[in-house]
Specification:
Layout lengths: L3 E2 L9 H12 L5 H20 L3 H17 L14 E11 L5 H7 L9 H5 L3 E6 L21 H11 L3 E3 L9 H14 L3 E3 L1 E2 L2 H4 L3 E5 L2 E9 L14 E2 L4 H12 L4 E7 L11 H11 L4 E5 L7 E4 L2 E4 L4 E4 L8 E10 L2 E11 L2 H4 L4 E2 L2 H16 L6 E3 L2 E4 L1 H4 L9
Helix pairs in contact: 1-2, 1-3, 6-7, 9-10
């Protein structure tokens, strides 16, 4: 497997040009300290450009500046410094801005679903979600399925960008609903917004590629696998689609990627829909990925929460449930926004913010839970996780897996 370095295609040709543009946009608005920051950044960029800008360095500086600007509580004030070694990765579950949500979104806008929680995504260095369906106007379905999803690319892609997403997982059982053209349109729409993708491609070689992001002098690699039907959605050497997760393939991919990056994150589309119970293969594949060098496993597909598990030096989020999904299903009622915090490449903790996604109440706009509803949601997560011999703590309305517990070996009986 050859990993690839993907660059935000909406960026200027060089770091120098990008930073000059950013600096110009803040003239007359920023404080003296902000001016100094950008001046130092431009000087650094000039040195880099004079010796040849690598894609990894270009993306590091650009991501840092853009995220600082987006997450700043006061315009022009940077909340962190380039010396901060901690990296925050926010992860959410299934996203599908169509279906029964379409009339609401046509009236209120496609950014509306993220209004109450976007600060949690924008405060992270990297935010990832599972895009459940293509962004396309192509109207020829690829397969005979009960549920077919597609949403307008010119509306959804900008909304995802404004929400703060850095990368979208495409490895699922709906991304090929409208065939190769639907996938092609999706890749193009996200690329135009500077959003990276992982988990699907024009053939197996491209679908299996890792996506690597560079930030704060560290490299984070993403892989994705789909364990869901139909089989015709799985890419082959000559056809587009997703990557089926064979255990040996996963281990080989993670092992190879780990040599090139500091942190490996693996997404799995797996499990049984509407069930809190794990299927037998889920822990097997998750453990195999961590044994090969992954630090964080992100799961989705069941539409409901499943257990969180500590395993060796890594953590497994078996299912994050729905996030913004166009359905009035009562079974998908609570979910979490998980923020994994890494310190110098090591997983330090995972903070899980409980949210309501019961659309008959929140009207397709996830709401953070507080008070007793938050406590009940966290207790649900704790009970699910105890089945995997993992203790989740609670503090200030947030569920937390601490670094001291991540470093502990889990029960050998569960391995």
């Amino acid at each position: 497997m050859n990993s690839k370095y993907l660059t935000n295609h909406t960026m200027k040709p060089t770091v120098c040009d990008e930073n000059r543009a950013l600096y110009k946009s803040t003239t007359g608005m920023a404080t003296h300290s902000l001016h100094s920051f950008f001046i130092m950044t431009m000087l650094l960029a000039s040195i880099i450009c004079s010796t040849g800008c690598s894609q990894a360095i270009e993306q590091t500086i650009t991501l840092k500046l853009k995220q600082a600007e987006a997450s700043s509580p006061v315009a022009g004030i940077l909340p962190t410094t380039l010396n901060d070694a901690r990296i925050k990765i926010a992860a959410v579950g299934d996203i599908m801005l169509g279906g029964t949500a379409e009339p609401v979104l046509q009236e209120l806008g496609y950014s509306y679903p993220f209004d109450q929680v976007r600060h949690l995504l924008q405060s992270a260095d990297i935010s990832i979600g599972n895009l459940e369906g293509p962004l396309t106007h192509h109207d020829q379905p690829y397969a005979n399925k009960s549920y077919l999803f597609r949403t307008p690319p010119e509306l959804v892609a900008p909304a995802l960008k404004q929400a703060g997403f850095t990368i979208m997982n495409l490895g699922n059982n709906h991304i090929m609903d409208y065939g190769a053209q639907g996938l092609k349109d999706t890749l193009s729409a996200l690329q135009q917004q500077g959003i990276m993708t992982v988990g699907a491609g024009s053939d197996l070689y491209h679908a299996r590629q890792a996506t690597i992001l560079s930030i704060k002098s560290q490299k984070i690699g993403f892989l994705s696998y789909s364990l869901t039907f139909p089989k015709t959605f799985w890419a082959t050497e000559t056809s587009p689609g997703t990557v089926f997760g064979h255990e040996k393939k996963i281990q080989a991919d993670v092992t190879a990627l780990r040599h090139d990056v500091d942190i490996v994150v693996v997404s799995f589309h797996w499990g049984q829909e509407k069930s809190n119970e794990l299927r037998e293969y889920q822990p097997i594949l998750a453990h195999a990925a961590i044994d090969a060098g992954a630090s964080l496993i992100i799961g989705h597909h069941p539409h409901v929460l499943q257990a969180v598990e500590q395993y060796k030096q890594g953590a497994i989020l078996y299912s994050l449930g729905n996030f913004t999904f166009g359905s009035y299903s009562r079974s998908a009622d609570i979910s979490i926004i998980a923020t994994a915090i890494f310190n110098n490449g090591q997983l330090e903790s995972i903070e899980m913010t409980p949210i309501s996604v019961l659309n008959i109440e929140v009207n397709f706009q996830p709401q953070r839970l507080t008070g007793q509803p938050a406590e009940q949601a966290i207790d649900h997560i704790k009970q699910l996780s105890l089945r995997r011999n993992t203790h989740i703590e609670q503090a200030s309305g947030i569920a937390k897996l601490q670094s001291a517990r991540i470093s502990m070996q889990t029960n050998p009986d569960l391995h």
